Amino acid sequence: MFACLAVGGALAGTAIGTRHRSTAPITGYLTAFVWLALALTPLSIVSASPLLMVLLVCAGAAFAPMTICLFELDAHAPRHTAAAAMMWMVAAEELGIAAGTVTAGATAQHTGAWLALFTAAVGGGLGALVVVGYRARLQRERRGGLW
Q: So which residues are the signal peptide here (predicted)?
């Protein structure tokens, strides 16, 4: 399963890295985040291994663009706060990964893989909503001349 995610990430990372993007990093991050949530959703109902592998490659394709855009976001931090901004973004991402791993592991152990995968999709969707909310704030602050 992890190999399929890695293949998707490698392919998407190569594609993203070889072309110029005209969109803002927050837009790219949000797009990849929504893609991840949508790609994880069908995993909870698929049982055929070949289809599962294809869906995992599609889900993995969201990770590289998300990471690339995440690292570009620190360029938009207020002056002299880039290191702190990066630290908070990485810490929040790692906290989410840890919380998701604990929740999905406990869920899978007690109820099976279906609900664990569904929980991951719901968590991704909630994360996308947080990014949407922050995007509006980021755009307001940018227009207000704080940078």
A: none
CA 46 to CA 32: how far, in whole Å?
A: 22
Which residue range(s) make up the domain with 53? 2-143
Q: What is the CATH number of the domain that holds 50?
A: 1.20.1250.20
In total, how many domains does the chain have? Answer: 1
Predicted confidence pLDDT, tens digits, the chain (147 residues):
779 889 998 999 888 878 887 877 778 888 888 888 788 778 777 778 888 899 889 988 988 888 888 777 766 677 787 778 778 878 887 888 888 888 888 888 888 877 877 777 777 777 777 777 776 776 665 555 444
